[in-house]
Write a structure and sequence with these properties.
By secondary structure, this protein is mainly α. The protein has helices at about 1-20, 20-25, 35-45, 50-75.
Length: about 80
Amino acid sequence: MLARSLGLAIGFAFSTSLGEFGATSFLSRPDHMTLPVAIGRLISRPGAQSYGMAMASSVLLAAMTVIVMSVAERLRPPEVTSW
């Protein structure tokens, strides 16, 4: 029972951390930029090319979240019925 809960908690924590902008913008360095910080910087720049790259990065972030959640769901142990 504990393995299922821990597996889903790890998956949710990872997917939440992918989109956490406040903490990553505070802790990231310019030479090691995270995806949420890159999206924020691209959106703040004017121009259609920057906006397009920000939208492409957003799709990549969403796809990574879907993949992580799908893997967490697939690795989940089967439900045990006790009745």
